[in-house]
Prior knowledge:
alpha/beta
Amino acid sequence: GDWEVILVDDCGPEDGTREAVESLAREHPSRRIEYIRNEQNVGCSHTRNIAMAGARGEFLAFLDPDDYWGPRQLEIALQSIGDADLCFTRGRCVDERGSDLGPHMGGRMDELVAAFPRSMFRENFLLIFAAVIRHDYIRKVGGFITREHALVGEDWDFYLRCIAAGARFVFSAEECCYYRRYQGSLTSDYLGSARDCVRVVRRNRRTARGIMRRDLTDALHERLCWLAYLLTSFRDWDGLRDMWEALRLKPFDVAPFVQVAKGLRNNWKSLR
C-alpha cells in the first residue's frame, strides 16, 4: 500500500510515456509519481542510478520497459525478504507477442539456487526486475556500473559486489514476473555479450578473496576461451590475446588452444 514510482525515460521516442505517467499521477494524487527524462541516451545502468538517487523508499524494485510484473510480484517479494538484503522471485520468458516461452533458465533454476552463491560466480541467472532490494544495501555497495565498463552484465556485476560485501539473498519459488525476449536484443549479440561478461568477471576477480577468487578465476578462464573462439571464428585476431590471458591464468590447461583451433577450423570451412 505504500509506494512511489520514479520513471526515468532514457531519451526514448516521444511515444506517450510522459502522458501515461501524468495520467497515473492524476489517478493517485496521494502518491509520489515522478517523471525524469534524460537529455541524451546514457544506457540502462546510468538510468537506474538516476532513479535510485531520487528514491526515498526502504526497498527498491526495478522494471525495464519491455518486461512486466504479475499482480503479486511486490507483495510476494516483500513477504519473503524477512531480514535479508535482496529477495528474488522466479520469472517466465515471453516473446515479442507475449507468448509463453517457458520458465527463465528452464529446469536449471532449482539447481542454481541450491548452489548459490558459487553458481553466481560462473553465470548470471537472476533477473534484476525479479528483485526487491533494501535501499540501504544499494547505498553500501554502490549503484550499477555504467556503459564504459559493460553494456550487458551490469546486474551480474552488482550481484557479485553484493556477495563480496556479505549480502543476504533469499529466493521465492513463485513465478511472478515476465522477461520479454527479442531476437535483435543486446543479449542476443553473442560477441558483445561475451566481451562484457569477460569485463565483469575480470573486474570482480581483482578484489575477490578465497573461494570467490578461485571460482572467478575458473569463470574468467572459461569466458576467455569462449571469447577467443568467437573472435577467431570471425577472423578477429584479438582472440589470440584472450587465449594468452587464459593461459596465464591456467598455464597447463589446453582449453585455450582447443578453442582457438576450433575458431580457425571455422575459418577454413568458410574459405572452402
